[in-house]
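Revision sheet: structure tokens.
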Amino acid sequence: MPHDNSVFHAMLKLLPDDDLELSVERHGAAHQARDFSFKSQFVAMLYAQLSGASSLREIEAGMRSHANRLYHLGVRPAPRTTLADANRQRPVAVFSDLLGVMIERAHRRLRRVMDGATYLIDSTSLMLNRRSADWAGFSAKACGAKLHVIYDPDADCPIYAAISAANVNDITAAQTMPIVAGATYVYDLGYYDYAWWTELDAAGCRIVTRLKRNTPLAVTETRAVEPGGAILSDRVGRLPGRQAYSRHNPFQKPVREVQVKIDTGKVLRIVTNDLTAPAQQIADLYKRRWAIELFFRWVKQTLRITRFIGTTENAVRIQIAVALIAFLLLRLAQQTQTAITSPLAFARLVRANLMHLRSLTQLREPPQRATPIPAQGVLI
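Predicted:
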């Protein structure tokens, strides 16, 4: 029996009930939605992410072609000028709040055990055109934004996201990120700040990152390593008393340096405040950073946030927020079935079947054909 609702409808049902409208009321934005609701705006932007539409004209044409199915969702097709005005003028906080609710909901459902959480911190650059120069210019010829993320590789979802202009340093964004006491944080050289490391250590967090090549370590203990392995050395010592010659280093506790030779032949100086875990475990934790790189690549290529339909800061922030919501919806939707294990294959099937009348468990099935009605009483 064919399913009554479209795949798009099934995806929307995974959203928290009424949270969008509650956010609209919380930010006093209801007066901006008299003729074009926030729900219609959000659905249009989500349609763009899931269908692959990359322009306002394409969003408008695609939604108009499915107007009868959108009617049952309580929204109407978005005229491109109306959608552009809404993205430019309406408060991005409405959509940021919805993203926060979705992150909390998805993380709770995707991660079964919260103890011993490992979080990866990184950012990715998003190139913009010159029409965004008033807020995102970082050189005479280039404009861009940054997406800063804390990512849980075990749940395969972000737990925090923030957007800034591209000229904002990673450590500046990290200093406003929430810290989960007792968690393990893995990050790279963009977060090289001893004071911030001290904050993490004070919260009982394990940190795993890299030392710069020119950072000296006052060694107090050298530990044995297996000859011929990837672990070249395992040493305990202290960091320099100052960072960048002028700032006192508040991180005065002993740290541990594990030197690892990777497949390319490069030697990494991995540093941690964990003095007891096996050296290979520390190396493996740092290697997990690859998961957040794959996440960024997946979001950019599959949800195509390398091309923006608006140029204002507000429009760009709204599109990124909706793209991350789309990612979380895809993760939750994939969890409802077991036939398709690849996230990329699942996303492609959702895109191909987005407005078809079928359930999320029927994405691989061929469309059902209507039974032909035999002619009656026809003589030739």
